[in-house]
């Protein structure tokens, strides 16, 4: 395998989870938010356009599966595929790293 | 710590390494490419403007240290700080994941 090919795949992976909000969406599905409204509530600042777009992108990339439950009324849930679930160790490491190294935004919330 | 704060820091971390080429630059410094020319040669498709910008951004964020060696002629090297080095487990996991799940770009190189 050439360096080009290694780089290309790593690159695609980073762009996939590095797109604004994508990592947060995946992380919140891990944490048990499976419905659109739960995801929206769990991710501060995301709007409907962006959440819907990210869910479609993650579904197209094979990380997220959209399930339509035959309840009445019909219910839609978002779950991680095996591909999505296997991102967990990398994202967990990244969460730990960010908690150690990224400073809290100063007083932004308490103002 | 509020969910907002957790999300914000994770988010900043993802944007930092998710920016186009940033992850590749960090990964290649890990791999031993410390000089500008080595980095440029190791990352297929990156241009001078982008490599210089990413190095400045990573330096400003505290992940990369720019060392000026008192040789003649003067030599500049890029090294990871402790903050940058501690990203390694997360990036290694992501490389493994991408090799398992991201398909090789078909025949793009062999055309």
Automatic annotation (TrEMBL), chains A, B:
Pfam families cross-referenced by the UniProt entry: HxlR (PF01638)
Sorted UniProt keywords: DNA-binding, Transcription, Transcription regulation
Top-level taxon: Bacteria
HTH hxlR-type domain mapped to chain residues: 7-106
GO function terms (MF aspect): DNA binding
InterPro entries: HTH_HxlR (IPR002577), WH-like_DNA-bd_sf (IPR036388), WH_DNA-bd_sf (IPR036390)
Matches recorded under PANTHER family: HTH-TYPE TRANSCRIPTIONAL REGULATOR YODB (PTHR33204:SF37), TRANSCRIPTIONAL REGULATOR, MARR FAMILY (PTHR33204)
UniProt-recorded name of the protein: HxlR family transcriptional regulator
